[in-house]
Amino acid sequence: MTDEPTSAPAEKSGFPGKGLIKGLGVTLKTMTRKAGTQQYPDVQPELPARSRGVIGLMESNCTVCMLCARECPDWCIYIDSHKETVEVPGAARARQRNVLDRFDIDFSLCMYCGICIEVCPFDALFWAPDFAYAEGDIRNLLHDRDRLGEHMAGVPAPPPHDPNGEPSKEESTAAKKGGAR
């Protein structure tokens, strides 16, 4: 072994500092372009249709089946209910139905996966495009059913059915039953 210092690898480019000049060129080119900054608090961004923001609850559709709470991977949905007896005229016995007492979603835990919306068989949960609901205190991210209901005002209507597409299952079933009579 010799104690000779090893030489640094030779630069592949023709002259030293070529990378610095390329970097300064990119910076200069970027500085001459007009900025595309949106002034967010003053100008609201245009969101795509059906964009995900916050979960809204249509309380009238909720049957307290608790599928959303069971399927939630973060366990951030809290539901309480009680049974109520309903007298039906002409029925042999009274019926019972679940009444919603509490429906809360803790958005500090929610990962916005949308599983709760997908598994709801009664279309009680929807994506609302509201996204500016930040809070200074984490405890205020627990939205109760009243606040979740307020988010429903921003939920857009579903797109119209394509007239050239296949009819929905409900439409085809109704047409079969109507034609059989």
Write the layout of secondary structure elements.
Elements: H1 18-32, E1 54-57, H2 67-71, E2 77-86, E3 95-106, H3 115-119, E4 125-128, E5 142-143, H4 145-150, H5 169-180
Antiparallel strand pairs: 1-4, 2-3, 3-5
How are the strands of the largest sheet arranged? 2-3-5
SSE pattern, N- to C-terminal: HEHEEHEEHH
Relative helix content: 10-25%
Given helix and strand content, the structural type is alpha+beta
Radius of gyration over alpha carbons?
Answer: 29 Å
Largest sheet: 3 strands, antiparallel
Mean pLDDT: 87
Q: Strand fraction band?
A: 15-25%
Low-confidence segments, given as residue ranges, are none
The overall strand count is 5
Put simply, the count of helices is 5
Could you give the distance between the termini? 102 Å
Shape: elongated
Tell me what you see in this structure:
It is a single chain. With 181 residues, the protein is α+β, with helices and mostly antiparallel strands. The protein has five helices and five strands, in the order αβαββαββαα. The chain has helices at residues 18-32, 67-71, 115-119, 145-150, 169-180; strands spanning 54-57, 77-86, 95-106, 125-128, 142-143. A hairpin with an 8-residue loop joins strand 2 (77-86) and strand 3. The radius of gyration is 29 Å and the shape is elongated. The termini are far apart. The model has no long low-confidence stretch (mean pLDDT 87).
